Amino acid sequence: MYPKTELKRKLIHLIGLVIPSIYIYLGRDFTISFLIVVLSIFIALEPIRLDKKLRDDLKQTLSYIRLEDVEKIVDEIARGHEKKRIGAHIFFVIASLLVIWFFPEVAVGVITVAVISDALASLVGKAFGRVKIKNKSLEGFLAYTISAYLILTYFGIPYALLGALIGALTELFNIPPDDNFSCQITMAVALYLVNWLSF
């Protein structure tokens, strides 16, 4: 993937910051309801994204709407493996919903890390990555770890360094089913467990 495309993808990825913002200003219950609605819409639209025939039929039916422009943008920012499987946006929303539901104390920090640190890791890795680790880079790993630590610390979350390292390692090794899901869940669970064990 070319750097320009990756930058565009990560800029769109930053829309995810809407979730912690809604949580801060409108509360947990509203955010959960909002995510359920968003997830329902994403799931309803996913077959159209994955099925070219269905997409072509829809374009013919709605010929007065320029769906080709939307299709072009989606195809451009989607990674190769996402064109044949569930999209990263669905994994991200499901993880955000689970984190807010079960781990509200760390939800804002964890979701913010999943948006910002993931973007920084990718951009730094592609621009400055020299030391390769699997298909990622040490530079990207460090960008994730440092930014995640700063974000978690800013939100007053204890054991921020541990959470940052867990998230960075999950992203580095691309833990299934998708790093947009796994990074949030592993960070939230790790922070919950270490806080629970410390009492």
TrEMBL record:
- Report which superkingdom the organism of origin falls in: Archaea
Keywords attached to this Swiss-Prot or TrEMBL record, sorted alphabetically, are:
Membrane, Nucleotidyltransferase, Transferase, Transmembrane, Transmembrane helix
Which GO molecular function, any one, fits this protein according to its record?
ATP-dependent diacylglycerol kinase activity
Enumerate the transmembrane spans: 7-26, 32-50, 86-103, 109-129, 141-169
Give the matching InterPro entries.
Dgk1-like
Q: Which PANTHER family match?
A: CTP-DEPENDENT DIACYLGLYCEROL KINASE 1
The name under which this protein is listed is: Phosphatidate cytidylyltransferase
